[in-house]
Amino acid sequence: ETLYTGRGWQNLNYRLGTDFYIGKNHIIGFLANGMVNDGYNDTDNQIAISEQNSETIDSVLVALSHTDRDNTNQSYNINYRYDNRDKKRSFNVDLDYGSYDSEVFRTLPNVYYDASFQNVLTVVNNWFETPSDIDIYTAKADFESQLFGGSFGAGAKFSQVISDNTFIVYDEGMEEDTIDDIVGVQNRDDTLSNIFKYDEIVYAVYAEYKRQINNKWSFSSGLRVELTDAVGDLQAFLPELAEDPVDLYYLRWFPNVGFTYQRNPMNVYSLNYGRRINRPDYNVLNPFNNQLSQISYEKGNPRLQPEIVNNIELGYTYQYRFNFKLAYSKTLDQITRLIGPDDTDLRASFVTWDNLAEQTIWSFNASMPMTVTPKWSTFVNLGGSRIDNQADYGEDGFVDIQAWTYNIYTQNTFTLPKGFKGEISGYFSGPGVWGGVFLYNETWSLNLGLSKKFFKDQLSVRVTANDIFYESGWDGVSSFNGLVSAGNGNWDSRYVSLSVGYNFGNQNVKSRKRSTGLENEAERVGG
After folding, report:
1. Neighbouring C-beta atoms of residue 272, cutoff 10 Å
2. Higher pLDDT, 243 or 222
3. pTM here?
4. How far apart are the C-alpha atoms of 245 and 196, rounded to whole Å?
5. Which residues contact 394 (CB under 8 A, 6 or more apart)?
6. How far apart are alpha carbons 58 and 94 in whole angstroms?
7. CA pair distance 159, 135, nearest whole angstrom
8. Which tens digit of pLDDT belongs to each residue from 265-298?
9. Quick one: CA torsion of 110, 116, 120, 121, rounded to 10 degrees?
10. Weakest-pLDDT range from 9-13, 81-85, 185-189, 305-309
11. Coil, strand, or helix at residue 117?
């Protein structure tokens, strides 16, 4: 059982940017983003221990860990854009650099009690120091122009990610302080401490073409090619624990094609096929044994392969606003989390990342905004899917899971007297499967809101009550490689908030909204 007993943090965010219009069609822009985050969290792990095939508890392990975390993120962007609207031609260049630094120190006392919780049997103290430095460099160029009655686009991108991670484990050693006193000291455990460096370079080029065939038919097609060269190097403090670097080098092709048929203005049909790649977050590549307690831990996998997703989607739009989609998706090397038994300690289990052989999903989605009365508007989203997970790890277990799941979300807005607006929203999610084999039960939430604007709509006040019945938690069971694991959890989802906003200055002055070149890579930094 895992209980989150406390957490807190302080955030400082900034975003600065400016644009220079150096000609009729030429813009040079500069953008800087940053964040400083200081926080902590306390986690209480409690594990009941008994003999195999026995329901009698022999002892209970309580591991109350305290983590202090300092994160500093900063990124810089230089942008050049040429935009000739008369000729319907544009050219865009982005140069980006991002730095993501994390300092983490965690204390983990493992206290063993007897079954009655009256006596302490033994205490084992551990400390973890896990700094991480990630540098991201990207350069990309995009070109768009009219061609043969359609729109043609092409581009290229270079990205490099350098991730430097240190994992230091300290055990409690004993030494004599005086003749009569024995004190505990922190000793570095070189059998568990490591340094992991990950260097990834991706070269990508793409081309796409869109064209209206006639007044009813249109089509789009494209191709993206990516070459990845990555090395993961785990450096041990003891020579006998050294491992060969993990070298990944692969070329992937990602085509896409789509057709749209507009039978009349009220009925539009579409058929699309696409292939894409999803790479793992950098932190899940680290092969460190991050202990949750002395007999439970989590670790990354430097040999994770990226997942390749093939997706076919049939869509229908009615009256420009009712959208219905039926989709088929097959993912090769699906990245997932698994809970398995430890080979060396029969009491222990671990959580790791691995690739499923394949995941197949059939899904349906309906999005329906409606006006019930002049003072009541509603939005309803319905979704359902069938998931089939397959994997065979030989002696380490296999996965053969099929699950149906569904979800309903609705948001209702009401116009109330004296300028007030009310809102009732919520969702219900049925049972399903998370990751590879974790079967979870239903969950739901109901939220309320009330808002009003003052002073010619410049001042807005909003009160919200979120998850008022506190039912958005999770619980379920995982069965893999002979280990059955049950889990449940909640977070601070039930709360009341008050927000006040005031618009001042010239509302007609708008900053240029644009993306940068490293956003996809930055999303993989993780928590």
Report:
1. 17
2. 222
3. 0.83
4. 10
5. none
6. 62
7. 11
8. 899 999 999 999 999 888 888 887 777 777 777 8
9. -80
10. 185-189
11. coil
Closest CA to 512 of 21, 13, 14, 12: 21
Separation CA 335–CA 389 (nearest Å): 11
Amino acid occupying residue 441: N
Taking only the tens place, the pLDDT of each residue in 446-500 is 999 999 988 887 889 999 999 999 998 888 888 888 778 777 777 778 889 998 8
Give the 3-state secondary structure of residue 200: strand
Amino acid at 147: L
* CB 324 within 8 Å of CB 308: no
pLDDT digits (tens, 9 = 90+) for 217-233: 999 999 999 999 999 99
How far, in Å, CA of 112 to CA of 2, rounded? 16
Q: Decide: 335 and 307 in contact? Cβ < 8 Å.
A: yes
Give the residue with greater pLDDT, 328 vs 511. Answer: 328
Contact 484, 438 (CB under 8 A): no
Detail the DSSP E strand segments found in 265-397: 267-278, 290-293, 296-299, 307-318, 322-332, 335-341, 349-355, 358-373, 376-392
- Counting beta carbons within 10 angstroms of the beta carbon of residue 495, is it exposed (0 to 12), middle (13 to 18) or buried (19 or more)? exposed
Residue 513 tokens read as 């909204």
Task: With CA atoms as reference, report the closest residue to 232 among 168, 296, 279.
Answer: 279
Mean local confidence (pLDDT), 236-262? 91
pLDDT tens sequence across 172-214: 754 444 444 444 567 888 888 889 999 999 999 999 999 999 9
C-alpha distances (whole Å) from 316 to each of 145, 217, 266, 272 are 29, 14, 10, 12
Check: CB of residue 473 under 8 Å from CB of residue 488: yes
**Are the C-beta atoms of residues 340 and 350 closer than 8 Å to each other?**
yes
More reliable by pLDDT, 134 or 240: 134
Structure tokens at 143: 């070109």
Side chain identity at residue 388, one-letter code:
D
Quick one: 265 exposed, middle or buried, by C-beta within 10 A (0-12, 13-18, 19+)?
A: exposed
pLDDT at 136 over 80: yes
Contact 132, 283 (CB under 8 A): yes
Q: In whole angstroms, what is the distance from residue 6 CA to residue 184 CA?
A: 27
The pLDDT, as a whole number, for residue 370 is 92
Measured distance CA(88)–CA(21) in Å, rounded: 19
Render the burial of 17-49: b for 16+ CB within 10 Å, e for the rest: eeeeeeeebebebebebeeeeeeebebebebee
| Token couple for 65 | 């860990």
β-pairing, 349-355 vs 432-434, is unpaired
Structure tokens at 333: 């090397």
Assess contact for 322 and 368: CB atoms under 8 A: yes
DSSP-assigned letters across all residues of 229-268: EEEEEEEESSGGG--PPEEEEEEEEEEEEEEEEEEETTEE
Comparing CA positions, the residue from 138, 134, 112, 136 lying closest to residue 125 is 112
DSSP letter (8 states) at residue 302: T
